[in-house]
Amino acid sequence: MAEQIVGRNPVIELLRSGVREIEHIWLAEGSSHPRIRQIIKLAERNGVRYQRCARNHLDALEPDIPHQGVIAKVSRTRYRELQAILEKVQRQDKPALFVMLDSVQDPRNLGAILRTADATDVDAVFIPKNRAVDVTAAVHKASAGASDYVPIAKVTNVARTLETLKAAGVWVVGAAEDAELTYTDADLTVPLCLVLGSESNGIRRLVKQHCDYLVRLPMLGEIASLNVSVAAGVLLYEVLRQRELI
Asked: CA–CA separation, 88 vs 72, rounded Å?
């Protein structure tokens, strides 16, 4: 079953990556934006069909997300298998870096996290099959196309997956506002899985119990916590800093 990717940057990255089969691209009539011209050039180079159409046709295809005059019909997101991910990281010469999202619901947050995950060379992002946002058109747009570069795995049981990672030598570190350890004091140079919780409740109690330890980000104002995508960015760049990659 096909799905849609909307927005200029996500479609450009889709054409560049070659990760998924593109069935068709619709472009708004009269649009001469440089990004639209770039999409046409890439589509012609890759042998991808495209056509101009009235903007209201695009509005009907995607009424909820600003499409910026471009919509691509593509094959569905290919989720990775946990075992294949572990086998790949065991062959590489750098410590593993994973992100586990526990019940994140907002597609914009997932998209932003995937964008940061791509920027920080995360090996895979894990999302639960239930009670969490899926990789949708809104997620693709928020990720600016990064969702086609970052390996994503759906897991049935978060706690069990964390135990599998730990058995493979990965340390599991959860972000929690009530943690005693500040994130800069934690050793993030080891093979690592960062666990981030939902926008409203954070990491669930059972999932916390499967973390090796918890860290907090200091909050000096009146608000008790950061947006989950912002917290992910802070933590992932701290990993790069400690690993002397930046």
From this structure: 30
How many domains does one find in the chain? 2
Question: Which residue range(s) make up the domain with 232?
Answer: 82-242
Q: What is the pLDDT of residues 66-100, one digit of tens each?
A: 999 999 999 888 899 999 999 999 999 999 999 99
- Which residue is associated with the tokens 């069990």? 160
Instruction: Give the Å distances, CA to CA, from 101 to 24, 128, 135, 150.
Output: 32, 7, 13, 14
Q: Phi-psi region for residue 172, left (φ > 0), alpha (ψ -120 to 50) or beta?
A: beta
Q: Whole-angstrom Cα distance, residue 215 to residue 220?
A: 16
pLDDT tens, position by position, 1-29: 678 999 999 999 999 988 788 999 999 99
User: How many Cβ atoms sit within 10 Å of the Cβ of residue 207?
Assistant: 21
